[in-house]
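Internal ticket #5521
Category: modeling
Description: The requester needs a full-assembly model to guide mutagenesis choices. All entity lines are attached below as received. Residue total reported by intake: 349.
Assigned to: D.W.
Attached entities:
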Amino acid sequence: MTLRNFSILFTLMAIGGIVSVQGQRSNTSPKLEDLPRRAIDTLSTQDDETKVIIYSNNTWSYYRPTLLNKYDDLPVYQKHWDTTQVFAYRTIELSDLPSAVDLKLISTMDEFHPPIIGRVFSKYGPRGRRSHKGVDIPLQTGEPIYAVFEGKIRYSKYNTGGYGNLVIIRHKNGLETWYAHLSKRNVAVNEYVKAGQVIGFGGSTGRSRGPHLHFETRYCDQNFDPEYLFDFENGQLKYQTFALERSFLNIYSRASDQLEEEDDEGYLALLTENIDSDSTSADFLERVARAQAKPDGINPGGPVYHTVRSGDILGRIAQKYGVSIDQICRLNNIKRTTILQIGRKLRIR
Ligand SMILES: [Zn+2]
């Protein structure tokens, strides 16, 4: 909507308000909220996209004209826009994607909000013959769930495939974030949301054993480990711009395949059921036994990897794992002077 169209709409709203004044006379003294509302002024706020509308009955409301449809013309909101099915890119294969895509996530910190803050108790990755395509974070039923970045709601309905109440936001850069098992959804498809807007409330709908948020990140329908982008426990975003490599779009590519993150989380992970698994109680007991025997994610004697983070240098990585720089160079066929790309997976052992 152009500014001019907006003014016309605004004028119509105002006229509508005036018309309703004539129709609502009453003998009893009216309550404030019952008074006819007529827009009399708009005020700017610190946020460029938000205005405050002042009404004739001394009430006010927020208005965000520019959020309504300023992105509607972007190809990302034109192509593969399917509000009825979870998968929207059915004609695109993984092999069609470039080897890496730069995802510009934010330019200022207020463009990010954690979906919920909490410890991931079930990580992304293979689960026996099935796979867990997101992360699980425990919550209290009814806790608000926030949009991580601004975007447009691509899907908001009850999904019978196991997700329960599911909201999918497609962000401008093509990234999609999925929020599952919600007790209640707060948004409708084709609606724009800002980072930090409450898109629903946590719950345990669908295939779930207890209240938790199942959260996924996808690009062209292909899932990757959300922990590449987010530190859920501290509510932080790891990058402003993230180089999403095609190799990350793989259930075996985990952000946490690093020694320092191996702890008791794996135990909790195996105790908790998730949407991609349809196991019986015998399976569950077996998983408990396995978890007690061996923490998830540790493969003693197997290869050890480190995913490069912002600020990492070879010397510090080598020191952290107690290996030589030469060993890392040899295993990864790189030189001491090679610039380490964030997100790159280095073999350590
Ligand atoms: Zn899950």
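Resolution: model delivered.
Comment from assignee: Residues 1-27, 258-281, 291-299 have pLDDT under 50 and may be disordered.
Ticket closed.
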